[in-house]
Amino acid sequence: MSTLMVDFIISLDGYGGAEGWPSYWGMEGPEYLTWLEQDSLKGEPIQLMGATTYRLFAEYLAQADDPASRALTATRKIVFSSTLTEPLSWANTELVNTDPIAAVRDLKEHESRELRTIGSLGLARSLLAAELVDRFRVVVFPVVTGVTGRQRIFDGYPDLSLELVESRTFDGQIQLLEYIPTVLDGPPAVDA
Fold this sequence. Notes:
By secondary structure, this protein is α/β, with parallel strands linked by helices. The chain has a single domain, classed as Dihydrofolate Reductase, subunit A (3-Layer(aba) Sandwich), CATH 3.40.430.10. The chain is built from five helices and ten strands. The chain has helices spanning 30-41, 51-61, 67-74, 100-110, 121-129; strands at residues 4-11, 15-18, 46-50, 77-80, 93-96, 115-117, 135-141, 149-152, 160-170, 174-183. β9 (160-170) and β10 (174-183) form a beta hairpin. α1 (30-41) packs parallel to α3. The radius of gyration is 17 Å and the shape is globular. It starts with a strand and ends in a 9-residue tail after the last strand.
């Protein structure tokens, strides 16, 4: 039996990226990068993603030569897409063109390694709504990208209650927050 973690890197105002900003908003420090490399290898997780994320990462990582990129290339990856065709160019990546919810349910039942999403906002949103997510982790970078921000992470998400199970600060400024999510039917009732 496996668990599933949704994993995001965000700005303080909830964006996954910003026009004109470098990766990690240019704020990645040595402590965060070391943790990222170690976390990428810990337990050899299976990375889940959609076609857009696959295209971005496959292109970028084909030219990257750092430990975290090499670790991600070496790990098993599953991309859910009805538009991509095999063979996929990024090493250790398999294509699934069936319903991602059913496929992830099956993976959770039959895999022993942890499953993690990487990027893939729509996939993560669907998996949360289907109540398949065991952990929800965000790494918050201390920037506000209100004008240049792209890819609002939480738009369209179901209402969630989040129980904090881990927190950490990297390089004196980057916050890791890990939660157990519970999908809510709506706002909690207010006692009169």
